Amino acid sequence: MRFFAYKVRAAAQAQTQKSEINYISKPEPKLNGQIYSDGITTKIWWIDGGLARWIVDEATYHGVFGGSPNKILYPSVVNITEGANVADGTELIRGDQDTAPIYLVNQGTKRFIPTEAIKSKYQLFGNVHTVAQSVVSNYPDGPIFT
User: Fold this and answer.
1) Percent of the chain residues past pLDDT 70, beyond the cut
2) Which among 51, 69, 112, 134 is placed 20 to 30 Å from 43, CA to CA?
């Protein structure tokens, strides 16, 4: 009987270890720009820099990504390393000069979006707000979208 109990316990431990291995999160840069829901919670995730970034509310979701971004049901999003949230107040801005570039402003920094193709890749289809150039200049630079 002891031998049987030992085998059952060893099998349970092996299964637990196997399950833990399956749920180790990792960055997924090949998914940059994708928007996912896990199908279990109401959370919506945007992949940026290989990290899953939770979009904190509906207003931010539509304000940054537009009226109907391409959201995919992807339960494995929980296996992607979690990054900083796409915070309330995140927006797309540009200065009031004629050819001012577009930036994503999030959590106190601005990130330059160098081309329309990159803007499209990251699904940044929301309204771009024109602000005084001095406002744009006041934000520190974050990483450039690539």
Assistant:
1) 84
2) 112
